[in-house]
Amino acid sequence: PEVAFPIRFYERRDYTDESREVTLSGLMVRLEEDRRENLEEEFKNPPSSTLTASGQRMKASIYVFKKDKETTFKNDAGIIFTIKGQTHGALSKSFFSRNNVGMGYLANSILIILDCTEFDGRSREDLFMNSRDRLRSGNLKSEIELQLEDLVKNHPGLRMLKERRKREAIQNKIQDDKPLADVINKIFKKSPSLSKLF
Question: Which residues contact 168 (CB under 8 A, 6 or more apart)?
Fold first, then answer.
């Protein structure tokens, strides 16, 4: 049926921006655009590795953010599983604090994108749930986690950066404790009885 009058749509919502257009960029695009300012120097060209679990090949790309720069790019996710660029599941950043991984100092900063596009249909069904909010437990997931643990634990760049962050954390702790030590020394100097007691 024909419409006898023209239909017009108007934007009535209150915007503070002058433009009515919004550009939505995917995580990968944003990472590419902003990596110089947000990624650690050694990871500006994110290293990648090919992993195999249960005969299924995956490409793991490792991004490491400068301290406190990760919040605009990631939430609790530490490892994102993708198929053709779309997220199908994730592991929490707590993965990096596991004893078998030992990257607690970098847990907030590491993001691994695991491209599972080459998985066959059966393996996709074994690993991914329709809701895309979590992964299915099972042998395939366990094998992938073992591969990732080994990759992260033994990655030379991550190990060096972990040691640097650890030194910085210790240095900051010492600096935080110094004012307290100065106050205690002043108290001891003013009170000979306390000085003798300790």
Answer: none
Nearest-angstrom CA–CA distance, 110 and 153: 12
Tens-digit pLDDT profile for residues 49-65:
999 999 999 999 999 99
The answer to whether the CB of 151 falls within 8 A of the CB of 101 is no
Amino acid at 24: L
What does the CA dihedral 114, 117, 123, 126 come to, rounded to 10 degrees?
Answer: 60
Give the C-alpha separation, 143 to 130, whole Å.
Answer: 21
Q: Kindly provide the residue ranges of all beta strands, DSSP E only, lying in 54-190, ordered along the sequence.
A: 56-64, 77-83, 86-92, 110-115
Residues 6+ positions from 120 with CB-CB distance below 8 Å: 56
The whole-number average pLDDT for the span 19-33 is 61
Length of the chain: 198
Write out pLDDT tens, residues 142-176.
999 999 999 999 999 999 999 999 998 888 777 76
Q: Find where tokens 């106050």 sit.
A: 183
